[in-house]
Every structure is written in structure tokens, then in C-alpha cells.
Design goal:
Blueprint lengths: L1 H13 L2 H10 L6 H11 L9 H15 L1 H16 L2
Helix pairs in contact: 2-3, 4-5
Organism: Bacillus smithii 7_3_47FAA
Protein name: DUF2624 domain-containing protein
Pfam families: DUF2624
């Protein structure tokens, strides 16, 4: 289980804007390509533990500054989907 969590966290910190944009479309999250690029750039290289509620909450607050609170909530729902897929 820890291995899968590590893989998910690694993917989040290395994903591209294009990947995030495609996932958004797949899961019906309406973000623009530019927003996806901005989020991916913000996440790139960070050591993030999505499974830690405090870290995820802080990350969503940071994302809200980039794309607004409503879209950040949708991104959080996407992250929760990733976490539940383990």
C-alpha cells in the first residue's frame, strides 16, 4: 500500500500540464490548458503527500490562488479519486 502511495505522490509531482488537462477532461473537470499548465508547474518537483490531509489542504489552498476556489475544489476531488484508486 505504501508503494502505491509513493507512486501516486511521485506522479503528482512530475505530471505535465497536458496530462492534468487530459485527466480533467476525462473526469469532467473544466480547466483550461493554461490552468493545467500553471498547476503542473506549481506541483513540479515538490515533495507532496496527497494522503496527508494537512499537506493536501495546503496544496489546494495554493492551487485556489492560481485557478480559484471552485476549480481548486474540483482538483481536490480528482486527487481524492487518485488516492482511492490505490
Amino acid at each position: 500500500m505504501k508503494f502505491i502511495q509513493t507512486m501516486i505522490n511521485h506522479k503528482i509531482s512530475t505530471m505535465t500540464g497536458t496530462e492534468l488537462y487530459k485527466w480533467g477532461k476525462q473526469f469532467k473537470i473544466s480547466i483550461t490548458k493554461e490552468q493545467a499548465d500553471a498547476i503542473a508547474a506549481h506541483l513540479r518537483g515538490k515533495k507532496i503527500d496527497l494522503f496527508d490531509d494537512k499537506q493536501r489542504t495546503q496544496l489546494i489552498k495554493e492551487i485556489a490562488k492560481i485557478i480559484g476556489p471552485k476549480k481548486a475544489k474540483e482538483i481536490n476531488e480528482l486527487f481524492i479519486l487518485f488516492m482511492n484508486s490505490e
